[in-house]
Amino acid sequence: MSDGPRVYSYWQRQARKTHRCVECLGDIQPSEKYEIFNGCWDGSWDEYKTCLPCVELRLSLGELDSPPDFGGLFGYVLDDGTAEQYAAVIKIYQDKNMFVPPYMLTTLQQLINQS
Ligand SMILES: [Zn+2]
After folding, report:
1. Ligand 1: centre distance to CA 35 (Å)
2. CB contact at 8 A, 8 and 46
3. 50 alpha carbon to ligand 1 midpoint, in Å?
4. Are 40 and 5 in contact, with CB atoms under 8 Å apart?
5. Ligand 1 center–CA 111 separation, angstroms
6. Would you place residue 5 in the very low, low, confident or very high pLDDT band (cuts 50, 70, 90)?
7. In order of start, what are the domains of the chain with their CATH numbers?
8. Could you tell me the distance, in angstroms and rounded to a whole number, from the CA of residue 115 to the centre of ligand 1?
9. Contacts (Cβ under 8 Å, ≥6 apart) of 6
């Protein structure tokens, strides 16, 4: 966790070539929409590209005192997320044909049982 950027802007764009999502590390395919976030942290600019399912997952966290850094969303959800958010992570992996570690399915079942 770190302080947010002093200056930032973000917008949505349609991909013309394949990009990599900073959160799920999956591909953002050409013609798919994604979010670009440009910010200045401690005097240096960084740019992050996020696929829309991950943007939605980030929004589902609501307002947090110390939100996860870019690239830390899944780690945050897997540690502290609700069963619904955990399920959203698994769905993103499945929708992108990415490997879902078996422990994640077990953990999701446990979260559902607890709720
Ligand atoms: Zn993503």
Report:
1. 10
2. no
3. 5
4. yes
5. 22
6. confident
7. 7-114 (3.30.1740)
8. 26
9. 39, 40, 41
Kindly give, in sequence order, each residue whose CB lies less than 8 Å from that of residue 55, ignoring residues fewer than 6 positions away. 35
Q: Dmax over Cα atoms in the chain, in whole Å?
A: 46
97 CA to middle of ligand 1, Å?
A: 12
Report the run of H or E that residue 87 belongs to, with start and end.
helix 83-95
Q: What pTM did the predictor assign?
A: 0.91
60 C-alpha vs ligand 1 centroid, how far in Å?
14
pLDDT digits (tens, 9 = 90+) for 11-65: 999 999 999 999 999 999 999 999 999 999 889 999 999 999 999 999 999 998 8
Residue 34 near residue 19 (C-beta atoms within 8 A): yes
Please state, in angstroms and rounded to a whole number, the distance separating the CA atoms of residues 106 and 101: 9
Six token digits for residue 90? 């698994």
Average pLDDT of the segment spanning 82-95: 96
